[in-house]
Amino acid sequence: MGLDFKILRETAAGGRRAQLALPHQTVETPVFMPVGTAGTVKAVAQDVLESLGAEIILGNTYHLYLRPGHEAIGRMGGLHRFMSWPRALLTDSGGFQVFSLSQLRKVTDEGVRFRSHLDGSSHSFTPEHSIDVQIALGADIVMAFDECTEYPADRGRAEESLRLTMAWARRSLDHFTAHRNEVVWRDELGGRTQSLFGIVQGGMYRDLRRQSAERLVEMDAAGSGFGGYAIGGLSVGEPRELTLEMISEVLPLLPKDKPRYVMGVGYPDEIEQYARMGVDMMDCVLPTRAARHGLLFTSEGRVNIKGKRYAEDQGPPDPACDCMVCRRYSRAYLRHLMQAGEALSGTLNTIHNLAYYLGLMKRVRASLEPH
After folding, report:
1. 269, 283, 313, 318: which one is catalytic?
2. How many Å is the Cα radius of gyration of the chain?
3. Nearest to 43 by CA among 289, 286, 316
4. Distance (Å, rounded) from C-alpha 195 to C-alpha 230?
5. Mind listing the pLDDT tens digit for each residue in 304-361?
């Protein structure tokens, strides 16, 4: 197997300090994973990500399938080699991106037919095809193909979405089990086995979430199918209290000896709260997307660096931060870059925000260390 999960300490509140050994990296958890949609965490070079302490990042199956294509990436040795990233990678299934193309897709029991947002060309994703694409990309962790439920959704819609997701999870697992050793990205690791995570859906209905989790665990009755479990379909517009409710409902139902991943969350205080509840892995585009719009996360709260009040502020973006941006640049300079439309603005803002998120998780891990 390509995954080994070792719990070092658990707290009374459910939080756990653990290590997730993957073919390319042993990841210290709980962990925040920067999102690298198209083979890049936007505006930040891979060596900088390494210096910030990122141990695992995400690649996006839908975008990489469309451009440059999974077959081309496979021929070039897989996504690790293609993007020159030596540490761990996780690829999503493409389900969420297809979900977001609501005006350009048609969902059937077989899968999803959709039109490319790039050129309008027609494509289809089935569970089997999603797994094939991810095997070609060669990430350490791949995700089952799911159907994300929008918010709000009535019960009938949520039930139908769950029916599809559970059927697709079974097909994803079967196809992955049959083909996971057919690796086309054989690199210096010798093509070691990838790991598949199942995804819990069910909208904002507690009983449907329970049903989804229980059925996924049943699929993995022998313990050799899913390497971990994700909770998907959150942060799609629902109130934060509802997000927390769904996570709280699902966590106790998932195997304690496997990693738990909440997809697409969230603000710094949210990811800290979820980590202390027992979530091992989280990702979100928020720190990178917010950075490009001038929003910085700091120990003093959120800073909109475009504000006029920072025009002559010679202090660092965050006085409590020791990242390469805060050590060298002033708020006034970062504001100037935003006002001037300089590309460096997005880079420096993003480096700081990622440093803040990764530093927060490092502090959480330290607080969970065995005594």
Report:
1. 283
2. 20
3. 289
4. 13
5. 999 999 999 999 999 999 999 999 999 999 999 999 999 999 999 999 999 999 999 9
pLDDT digits (tens, 9 = 90+) for 16-37: 999 999 999 999 999 999 999 9
Backbone angles phi, psi at 73, to 5 degrees: -65, -40
Residue boundaries of the structural domains of the chain: 4-284, 286-371
Q: Are 72 and 182 in contact (CB under 8 A)?
A: no
pTM over 0.90: yes
Is there a contact between 344 and 312 (Cβ–Cβ < 8 Å)? no
> Among this protein's residues, is 92 annotated catalytic?
yes
Q: What is the rounded CA–CA span in Å between residue 281 and residue 274? A: 9
d(CA 25, CA 7): 16
Distance, in Å, from the CA atom of 292 to the CA atom of 348, rounded to the nearest integer, reads 9
H or E segment and range at residue 226: strand 226-231
**CA-CA distance, 11 to 365, in Å (whole number)?**
12
Question: How far apart are alpha carbons 88 and 199 in whole angstroms?
Answer: 20
- For 260, which DSSP code? E
- What stretches of the chain show up as alpha helix (H) in DSSP? 46-52, 61-66, 70-75, 79-83, 95-100, 127-137, 155-179, 206-219, 240-250, 268-277, 286-292, 324-328, 331-340, 343-367
Angle at 85 between CA 275 and CA 327, to 5 degrees: 65
Does the domain made of 4-284 have the CATH classification 3.20.20.105? yes
* Rounded Cα–Cα distance for residues 158 and 171 (Å): 20
Contact 127, 176 (CB under 8 A): no
CA distance 155 to 215: 19
List the catalytic residue out of 4, 92, 280, 322.
92
Task: Write down the residue that tokens 């994703």 correspond to.
Answer: 125
> 199 forms bridges with which residues in the sheet?
230
Token reading at 46: 């891979």
